[in-house]
Amino acid sequence: MLNLAIAVSIFVAGTLGLPAIAQEYPSRPIKVVVPFPPGGGMGDRIARLVSDKLRERFGQPLIVENRAGANANIGADYVAKAAPDGYTLLVTGEGPLVINKALDPKLSYDPEAFVPVSVLIAQSLILVSNPVLPAQNLQQLLAYAKANPDKLNLASNGSGSNMHLTLEMLKLATGVKITHVPYKGIPPALTDLVGGQVDLIFVGLGTVQQLLKAGKLRVIAAASERRMALLPDAPTIAESIPGFAATSWFGMVAPPKTPVAIAEKLSGAIREFMLQPDVTKILAELSIEGVGNSPAEMTAFIKQETERWGKVIRATGIKAE
Length: 321
Description:
It is a single chain. With 321 residues, the chain is an alpha/beta fold. 45% of the residues lie in helices and 18% in strands. The chain has helices at 2-24, 42-58, 73-80, 94-103, 138-147, 162-174, 186-195, 205-213, 260-273, 277-285, 295-316, and strands at 30-34, 62-66, 88-93, 115-129, 153-156, 179-182, 200-204, 218-222, 247-254, 289-290. Strands 1, 2, 3, 4, 5, 6, 7, 8, 9 and 10 form a ten-stranded mixed beta sheet that branches. The model is unreliable at 1-18 (pLDDT under 50).
């Protein structure tokens, strides 16, 4: 009976300790790892915006540290091996969390072991072309591609990226043959798209909005579930191919075994500031949607995304480079 009483008291103390941990957290600086280079990339911008707001909320420094390389796996691996105390966090896109494991089953970390905190932002991809392309909508594009196999090419920011996988999903759904041209980043891909060296790209609206306004690029269709408020005249691919959707997103996760109470505290703070007028203004200017959901909602979202891209990777046999 004594052993049982001790076990029960230990369990109760441990259970009560989680809220206490969350109440005390954070009591020192937090490191926010971004697995991309510093600069103007969306992941880096969002990580710094979120870090600034969490610094205001908690009164503790948040230090953004860029650990780029190996298709974002270097930064993800670093966080996966960090102490599970909430003082090292990862802000990343879909690659390390839902795509890379399907591309390379021998990853040095387990994406499913991360503790989800919150999806931060999301934007549906749009299919954009050089205006000289003799197709102004999806139906014309597919007809042209079927009549001219492999004549069209589509740029992406790298093999295995969601931009590339969205092309492969379109090819699987329609049977068209379009050549994939990988680039080391979006800027050089857009330079060649505007210059006519490539024909198409799947990209976020905010990245190409100014080029669209200047008439240097043309929207073919949106890969959103419903028509986009900022592009109401652009048909969705799903109107022709039911269920077709592709989203670019960034989220925050914590190292494996981080107490859920800490993840909940971070998530609650993120939900609060995502509604602040200055934040909504910044995100609107970038043509992206602030999310700020709960750890449980992020878990369900990651599962859905993992199934979506895993299906495409298995069907095409794409491997990590």
